[in-house]
Amino acid sequence: MMAGFGQGTRRYPRSRGRTWSRTGPDRATLGIIGAICAIVGFFVLGIFLGPVAIVCGWLAMGRTWTGSRSVPALVAVVLGAIDTLLAIIWLSGATTPGTGMF
Predict the structure, then answer these.
(1) Which pLDDT score, from 0 to 100, does residue 50 have?
(2) Closest C-alpha among 68, 66, 42 to residue 53
(3) What is the CA angle 25-28-29, rounded to 5?
């Protein structure tokens, strides 16, 4: 019976091989980073920061639409999508950033 090497699996059933790594950022941090990227993306580099915000928000939501969602993660996904769409429209030449200002 040397299969367990002295460490029984009854006391710690999830201790080896089934838990996520704790080295990366947690979901709350990803949601906040995504929301910040989405807000900053409205002013500069929207074509880059919009998709970054969407990815951060999606990862913060746990890669699913069901279940409980944090507010910063949802804000990051929605504003990132709007930001990306506006950047694509602006790059296509349909409008300019200063249209209607003066």
Answers:
(1) 92
(2) 42
(3) 45
